[in-house]
Amino acid sequence: MPRLAVIGFPVGHSRSPAMQNAALAALGLGEEWSYEAIEVAPPDFEVKVRAMAAAGFAGANVTVPYKEAALVLADESSAAAKAIGAANTLSFSAGRIAADNTDSGGLLAALRGSLRTGRALVLGAGGAARAAIWALGAGGASVDASHPPFEVDVWNRTGARAAMVAAELGGNAVDSPIQAKYGLIVNTTAVGLHGEDPFEHLPLSAGGFAAEQVVVDMVYGEQPSPLLGAAADAGATVVDGLEVLVQQGALSLRIWTGREPPIDVMRAAARA
Fold it and tell me: What pTM, to 2 d.p., does this model score?
């Protein structure tokens, strides 16, 4: 019975198991395949991943804080994962670990129909931020040729890290971004995951959004995040982390099973 999982620290909040198990059932694979959440402390990550194939795992999603580490331990990697410098999807076969990155394609799919040319602001400098910077810039054309590349600014609470990531991926590091000048704002940080006020920790103001903007918040929960709530109040187009989760999860499922993922089933299960 092939097993799948999401690995992270923490990972208890993840909707991936419900979403992926619903998809497997819809594909007629529910009695053969399963998907679970595995919380792994940082000192144990590499040992755990290297033991997964022997434990019957065919693949795994990787979330905070392991996306960059996942790429390092892989035996082979997709062009996107290499370019981004992070992986969120691992496959185990013939004693080898293959790494891919579906965060980039998932973000573009979630934004399909909302993308405009212009300037984008990415908040954060971790694995999800790396995927967003690459996808929104010129690299995203290899995933979706129809998407217009943005000029991407990168902010992180540690300015030196923002500068390093921006230099690697073709963005511009900024210390004090001007909220109104961006057509697209993407929060990839974990701010808000534990109930924090995002406007106390991010260089944004609740009243600074505009109707012509598109705002993405990777954080998701039972209710819309305060960040998206403020953006929606201003008339902005908002995309929550659950929609991005659904789209990247669908791409991962296609990699593992070779089957076309049931997006509507996955979306319903993620939001149940």
Answer: 0.95
